[in-house]
Amino acid sequence: MGVIKIDKILNILLRLVDASKVTISLTIVAALLASVIAFVSGILLLNRHKIIRFLVRTYVEIFRGTSLLVQLYWIYFVLPFFGIELPKFTAGVVAIALNYGAYSAEIVRAGFLSVPKEQIEAAKALNFTSSQRMRYIIFPQAIRIMLPGLGNQMIELIKGTALVSLIGLEDLTYSGVIMRTNDIADTFIIFILILLIYYAISTIFASGFKLLEKRANVGRA
């Protein structure tokens, strides 16, 4: 009996690990898109033009102030009424990226604002171009401040990917629910394994961000 139980657990684990490939792919693609959105939005929030700031602020507040699940449903179920029909994976990526991009935009904005204005003025006095100021003065200091917050958002993003199971995308959570439906007696084993796999994925990504933080702080007193 013990051998049979272990074999069953291993079979469930292998199926869940295979399903986790979708979760990992979704996480990576959504995180990359969210990062682009965050940096563009964060910089535009500092733009001198009020209309641009207003438009970006509206996007940030809407996506920060509403549920990711509702946003996901809108993108997957409502947009087709307007002639925009997205595959499940794409809908999941777009919803997650827009949501976490909005949250991370504030982190980016705060990071850039944290750089002392005196240093920027000094760089101008030394005839640094705007790109040189960004490359040598602003970005290296701002990124050190951003990374811990962005790392936390990454962990939240990983957990948020579980919501795509509600539109039928066969990710880790969806596969676990289907397996549990087929054999309810395995409920405990299935969800313990799902929990552990999510924890492992989160730990790997968190370790990556900690490594980035250490590298960003190299040479800093």
Distance between the termini: 60 Å
Strand content: under 5%
CATH superfamily: MetI-like
Q: What is the rounded Rg? A: 21 Å
Domain ABC transmembrane type-1: 20-205
Membrane topology: Multi-pass membrane protein
Family: Belongs to the binding-protein-dependent transport system permease family.
Transmembrane segments: 24-46, 58-79, 188-212
Detail the topology: elements first, then pairings:
Elements: H1 2-44, H2 50-65, H3 68-78, H4 88-113, H5 117-125, H6 130-160, H7 172-182, H8 187-216
Helix pairs in contact: 1-4, 1-7, 1-8, 2-4, 3-4, 4-6, 5-6, 6-8, 7-8
What does this structure look like?
With 221 residues, this protein is mostly helical. Helix content is 80%, strand content 0%. The chain has one domain: Orthogonal Bundle (MetI-like fold), CATH 1.10.3720. It has helices spanning 2-44, 50-65, 68-78, 88-113, 117-125, 130-160, 172-182, 187-216.
What's the quick description here?
The chain is mainly alpha-helical.
Using brief descriptors, characterize the structure shown:
0% strand, cell membrane, mainly alpha, transmembrane transporter activity, membrane, Polar amino acid transport system permease protein, 221 residues, 8 helices, flat, MetI-like fold
